[in-house]
Design goal:
Blueprint: H1 9-15, H2 17-30, H3 37-50, E1 54-58, H4 61-71, E2 79-83, H5 88-95, E3 100-104, E4 125-131, H6 140-150, E5 153-157, E6 165-166, E7 169-170, E8 177-181, E9 195-199, H7 202-211, E10 216-218, E11 221-222, H8 233-243, H9 246-263, E12 269-270, E13 278-279, E14 285-289, H10 292-301, H11 331-339, E15 340-343, H12 351-362
Parallel strand pairs: 2-3, 2-4, 4-5, 5-8
Antiparallel strand pairs: 1-9, 6-7, 6-13, 8-9, 10-11, 12-14, 14-15
Helix pairs in contact: 2-8, 3-8, 4-5
The chain binds pyridoxal-5'-phosphate (PLP).
Length: 364
């Protein structure tokens, strides 16, 4: 029997193969490869999809994040609240600017615990970075209210949450800047690196356009020391193809998740819950198990691959030893790091594949 991979990006390609190939040829034959009509069209279409006034394409999700804090003027001496159980790129977006991440424990939905935010706000706090982890949603009304109360900036890491909604509003529209990654494995994936930001503030959008292109608004006239973080025409064109099908792709993930939730029955496993009044887009289906190593081995023996998102929380990463956090400092974050497991979840997953995964989990 074929091994079931945790993710199958080839299936996502095959779904709309003819359209992807036609678009790739169209761009290759156009003679224009960087910042052209595909990028502009994608920016407009993605802004409309998210429900944001502006979108600016960038080279990847990490660039979207670090450029966000740069544009907001957040740097050395400033603190940014961020959940402890995130992908390290969220934290690098803060520290690349010289600012300090202040880790907040997650709630039972694996999102930033809003009841623990206020006690960590100091004179140095300048922003909250909310990460909509696994395609779920933080309790955004409370985050927004706290940002208003303390005059903080709000940045959303939407690298895993394309299309997710809290109280009918899409992630990426709640704060000053929404940061998206279109890394191939994401819900809206490109065929290489790609990213974007969304914002309702025209000045922020313009600042990103300047920063991503060597600090230049007018060719060879450089206002600031910028960077090269441009989205290319090929990726933008291919993203436009996939964006047309986002609702269908999201529905497919929701159906896969609903079936897992209905049919996985094992007291050793904790299944993910959905916060009321949210639409989750299931970037990952993350279960928890105290005997995780044994579970991984059991699934592996049956030809089922899994991944851990993420085994080492950023505060314990070697890269962040300089922040001086001890093991045990964030018990919930660390508990999750020791217990979480992402089971296969991808567009194009067959019923037979899902049957095998469910059966294997129920027999553990
Ligand atoms: C993927 C990811 C990123 C980084 O995106 P890249 O495009 O790989 O740079 C940032 N944050 C989260 C939560 C992610 O999952």
């Amino acid at each position: 029997m074929d091994k079931i991979q945790p993710n199958r990006m080839d299936r996502g390609f095959q779904k709309y193969q003819a359209e992807f190939e036609a678009k790739a040829l169209e761009v290759l034959r156009s003679g224009w490869y960087i910042l052209g009509k595909e990028v502009s069209a994608f920016e407009e279409e993605f802004a409309a999809y998210v429900g944001s006034k502006h979108c600016v394409g960038v080279a990847n999700g990490l660039d979207a994040l670090w450029m966000a804090f740069r544009v907001l003027g957040i740097g050395p001496g400033d603190e940014v609240l961020v959940q402890g159980n995130t992908y390290i790129a969220s934290v690098m977006g803060i520290t690349m600017n010289g600012a300090t991440p202040v880790f907040i424990e997650p709630d039972e939905y694996y999102q930033i615990d809003v009841t623990k935010l206020e006690e960590h706000i100091t004179d140095k706090t300048k922003a909250i970075l909310v990460v909509h982890l696994y395609g779920h949603n933080a309790k955004m009304d409370e985050v927004v209210a706290l940002c208003k109360k303390y005059n903080l900036r709000l940045v959303e890491d939407c690298a895993q949450s394309h299309g997710s909604m809290y109280q009918g509003q899409m992630s990426g529209t709640f704060g000053d800047i929404g940061c998206f990654s279109f890394y191939p494995s994401k819900n809206l994936g490109a065929f290489g690196d790609a990213g974007a930001i969304t914002t309702n503030d025209p000045q922020i959008a313009q600042d990103f356009r300047v920063l991503r292109n060597y600090g230049s608004e007018k060719r060879y006239y450089n206002k600031i020391v910028g960077t090269n973080s441009r989205l290319d025409e090929l990726q933008a064109g291919l993203l436009r193809v996939r964006l047309q099908y986002m609702d269908e792709l999201t529905r497919e993930r929701q159906e896969l998740a609903a079936r897992y939730t209905a049919e996985i029955r094992n007291d050793k496993l904790i299944l993910p819950m959905e916060r009321p009044d949210t639409v989750n887009v299931w970037h990952q289906y993350v279960i928890r198990c105290k005997e995780r190593d044994a579970l991984i081995a059991h699934l592996e023996s049956l030809g089922i691959g899994t991944i851990i998102h993420y085994p080492i929380p950023p505060h314990l990463a070697e890269a962040y030893q300089y922040l001086g956090h001890e093991k045990g400092a964030y018990p919930i974050t660390e508990k999750y790091a020791n217990e979480v497991l992402s089971i296969p979840m991808y567009n194009g997953m067959t019923t037979e594949e899902q049957d095998r995964v469910i059966q294997a989990l129920n027999n553990f």
